[in-house]
Amino acid sequence: MIRKLLYVAMCFTVVAGTTKAGWFGSDVKPVVPAELRCESLKEPLGIDATKPRLAWEIADCRMLIEEANSQESTFRKRQIQIPRGVKQTAYQVLVATNEKLLKEGKADLWDSGKVASGQSIQIEYGGKALSSGLRCFWKVRVWTASGSGGLTAGSSSWSTPASWTMGILEPSDWTAKWISTEVVGPAPVKGGDLRILKATYIAKDGGGSADVTAWVRAMVKDGTLGFVVQADKLGGDPAPNRVKELRVDYELNGKAGTAATVDFRTLTLPLRDSLVPAPLDSPYIRRSFMLDAVPAKALVTVNVLGFYELYVNGTKVGRDVLSPPLSNFHKRSLYVTYDLKPYLRKGRNCIGLWTSRGWYWKVLDGRANPAVKHDTAIARVQLDMVVNDKPVRIETDGGWRCKASGRSILGSWSWNQMGGELVDARLEDPRWADPDVNEESWCPVAVVPAPSIPAEAQKCPPTCVLKTLPSLACATNGTKYEVDFGTNVTGWLSLRLRGLKAGDEITIRYSDKKPITPMQMYNHMDRFISAGRDGEVFCSKFNYHGFRWAVIEGLPAAPRLEDAQAQAIGADWETCGSFECSSKLFNRMHDVNLWTVQMLSQSGFLSDCPHRERLGYGDGQVSIESCIMNYRMSGFYDKWSLDWCDGANPETGYLPHTAPQYKSGGGGPGWGGAAQALTWRNYLYYDDRGVVARNFEACRRHIEAIESHASNGVVRAFGGEWDFIGDWVPPDRGMDSGNWPPKRAAEFFNNCYRLYLREQLAVMADILGRADEARVIRAELERLRPLVHAAFYDKERQIYVLDEKSYQLM
Fold this sequence. Notes:
Number of strands: 46
Distance between the termini: 50 Å
Helix content: 10-25%
Radius of gyration: 30 Å
Low-confidence stretches: 1-29, 273-278
Mean pLDDT: 90
Number of helices: 15
């Protein structure tokens, strides 16, 4: 806001005619570069591009004044900044290590000089080498040709300075250790002569049971038993979508006993305190320290495999949730940089991480991930400060402390088992990140080996709470209360609880459709155990749901409508376009479309659904134009395209059906083609040649992998039932209809798509200056087109395979 006022003050002076001659010329009405960006971001922290790319827009100063006084929407105000008919003919960029130098017209990092060019995006920094943590200040001026509205040719004023800050560029610049809480837990129990007499896995409402004696006996080791109760460890689920309890009759050292606990709690024999989970799940982690003064600079870099939230002195830092976005853990991890100067103070301070495993599982859907070495999230944190003109660093090591938060993940995050969270309010500590908390009872963390992957700056927007929806109705269904939020949403339920006693439990299930049936709940469930405090609030934190209705069981009375809210969570995309017309139906269709893609945008990719799979399937490419016409998508698609390339089969180059790839998922050649679709659009709409250069080989190898299954120039079906899908869920076909298109139709569709990819690849080769390669690709296209046509065209019917639109279109 301060910088905008500076713009307005500068522009007012110029428009009033008090500017010095020669700045624009004595009678020139001014333009000025505005909306300065580095790597497509405003004032970014912690970027790792060693040659950052700069961009700006040209604004009419008179319009900036009008904008400052306007009551119109933010989007509309942005539109009026850009004058019609003005053409940039040249630019000059200055980059310096402090603003004072810029004000003096000096640049100790880079002075581009006057560059004759109309380019105002993707301007690559060309100055001195940049180092980790360096803050760079920059400004730009432009020269323009004549435009409409009274604007004439000349030089603009200098823009108001902007800045960017470098992240951690070299592995050697990291001194923080990786830490884990997985080895921290209760003291080991001493074994004995333990015999399991009978074990029963039973629904608490009587809806089903199973004798699991053999399964439990097999888990006894060295006279002890200890495991987290869940169906996949007990031979299956005897009562899906119901709360179940494991009851064990046993004999220990000749003395009979009975133990019982519900799903997702730890059962141990000999018995120990059931409130203490082991290993720690969703733990609090903290470090306290003293400062002699408020830091002049304080940047912290957080690198976590799993999810986290960052706290300083009891306050959450940043709007981001479920951070960081998912990456391929066998290829790279992502870090985020925060400015902690506003949060720190003289004296004792505390920095805290609240972590959870997120996608960091050793096994998902029966598929092992060798890149995951631990049973909890692992993290490293590096805080670099300047205090009294001296550098001070706080970093993760064995001196950090941790304890249970009372929160743990429910479900295995496998197919249809995305679960929810268990919140035991008896273990919650609202002051866990306060600097003056006594840490003596906390456990030390463990220092673990560093993962053998690079850490890179997060490019995509963070996941945030985008909107809060009030509850609209509450219906009673027996002992259950169905709270309706009026629209489907991906995110969290926030529920204020009244009248519960310590130890009382409530269960919350979720549905996006009526009638609400167990199948429609997709095994999503949260559980809350009360501490007996008045006004307790349940809210998810490290898991989420897709729902319209929350079905609550265990309350003494119906919740008040004002006590329940749904928090919509998705990527924090910046709006850059809009649509509105005279048709309410078209407007509503547009809004629903955008709501849908945002509700699928968690974790840095577009998923198929928030409830069953949460996978970044390749058919997410169909929404690219919708997204780009409404939001700034360059960073999001840059990141997601890299996820695709990371998942390539190292031997064949074939790209997977989902990215980042963690679970198995069906698809076909077109699904991996998403890597090229995203890469191409990032060039087409944002002139990003860098992403084309980075991804070109992966795109080329994918095409070659598809064509390795060709006979006489025509690719034939390969793989299993779910590996060669063509047109996906057309009207009255596919998925649940049992009416799949025939294999020949899929072969035609995928051959056309493969030729489309080749055609696009030729243009990408042109962009990169690989003219010889482009000629070879186009020559092969000319050879293949008639072969595909001959193989699938029905001359008599004058159609390709099926008389359905998608095949004629292809």
